Every structure is written in C-alpha cells, then in structure tokens.
Amino acid sequence: MSSDISGRKRKGTGGIFSVFREQEAGLRRFLRRISPSSSDIDDITQETILRALQAEREREILQPKAYLYTIARNVVRDSLDKKSRSVIDFIEDFAPETVSSNEPLVEDQVDGRQRMLLFWEAVATLPEQCQQVFVLKKVYGYSHAEISKELGISVSTTEKHVAAGLRRCSEFLDKRSVRFGKESESASLQG
C-alpha cells in the first residue's frame, strides 16, 4: 500500500478496511448503543464498511476512524427513516376509515400525515437517550425491561425517559395544535 509523506493512506489504497478491522469491536459497541435493534447490527456494520470502501475509491479519507463512525450513525438513521416511513404507510393503509370506505378522504390522509410529521418533530426535540427510549417504547413496542437491556440502563431510568418523552412530546404537540388551530380559523375567516 502506498502512502504520502504524512503517513496517511492515499485514495483507493484500502486503508479504510484496515482501520475498520482495528475498530470493528468498538464500532459494534457503538451501534448497540444507538441502534434500536441489536438484530440489525450485522447489517448496519456491513453497510458501513461497504459505503466506506466506495467512498475511499472516490476520495482520500483523512480521518478514517471518525469517518466510519459517521457512516455508521448515518446508516442507523437511514434504517430508522425507512422503518418510520413503513410505520406511517402501514398506519395510513389500515386506518379504520380507509378500510371501511372505498373512497378515503384526501383531507384525512393529509391530516394524518401532518400529525405523524408533527409527532416525529416532537420526538426530534427530545434529548438523545430519552429519544431512543421513547421510540423503542412507543414506535417499536419494546417493554421497559427490553429497553433497559438493549440500552444498558436501569428499568427506572427507562420509565423516567418514557414519562419525560410523553410529557415533552405532549407539550410540543399541544403548542403546535393551538397554532395550527388559529391559522385554520383565520384562513376560514378570510376564505
């Protein structure tokens, strides 16, 4: 493998893979902390190294360790985004009014989507660990014990995060509902 005067690996020389091999155990520990599902860690790890190798072919990676962790975090986010979209699609596909009626109202679909987007906006305002606990509980249906085991925290801490997440999300949504209500009223008065 060739390297420049500073000792950094040049573009396309495979340096990222050797850093990956050195960091794999630590990367997996990191993923266990940030990924809602431990069963996805192998897939996320594989996707991380694949993306890193592709990037290395295109450009020089100056800080390969930090780059690997950044990619891993992005892969987890992408995975959560896909799962969130599938949850939204599932909810919309099987909403009672959609199933019982042959012609669902467009307004109901738009309203449901807006409410779901507001929910995720509220979740995004939570501190990181509170957000992880809240999503595992409310979106994925984990028990407090499962969340505790998954994240390596006590059941009591899990319960506190769920309660705090509920309270903060409710407050966020209450504030938004009031604002949207006022906008709707003023729009109907003008129209």
UniProtKB/TrEMBL annotation:
Keywords on record: DNA-binding, Sigma factor, Transcription, Transcription regulation
RNA polymerase sigma factor 70 region 4 type domain ranges (all copies): 118-169
Matching Pfam families: Sigma70_r2, Sigma70_r4_2
Domain of life: Bacteria
The RNA polymerase sigma-70 region domain, residue ranges: 26-85
GO molecular function term, any single one: DNA binding
Keyword DNA-binding: yes
Family designation: Belongs to the sigma-70 factor family. ECF subfamily.
Record-given protein name: RNA polymerase sigma factor
Species, as recorded: Hyphomonas beringensis
